[in-house]
Amino acid sequence: MKLSTRTRYGTRALLELALRKGEGPIFLKDIAKQQEISLPYLEHLIAPLIAGGVIRSTKGPKGGISLARNPEEIKLSEITQLLEGTVAPVECIDDPGACSRSSSCVTRDVWARLKEAIDGVLEGTTLQDLVEGHKKKSQPDKTMYYI
Known about the structure:
By secondary structure, this protein is mostly helical. It is 53% helix and 5% strand.
């Protein structure tokens, strides 16, 4: 199973907004440059995030986009749902009627457990968790070696 670039790039853009929280609206071109995402593609990702209430857009010379809520309130499950849709690895998980064997298929049980595990990770991870992880990875290693 592989998430599309919509979810991966959208999450990176939201992380950039979370890292710059308090700076006011941020220009899309600045996010695109910092996160190495093409501006036209980033523009395409913004609409569902605005419609979903994750970000807000401000027009005008000091306009741009910003988070509509605090980073600790925005879960990766919400972002993924808005940009990707379901994370079910097979169609019959969300729609048992898609396959006549759904009720007796033992492999469907495995795919259902896989979806539950993915949902658990996404539901248990917020943008704030990503901000904290980014800060840890950005700090230089403070290990001192003496000879």
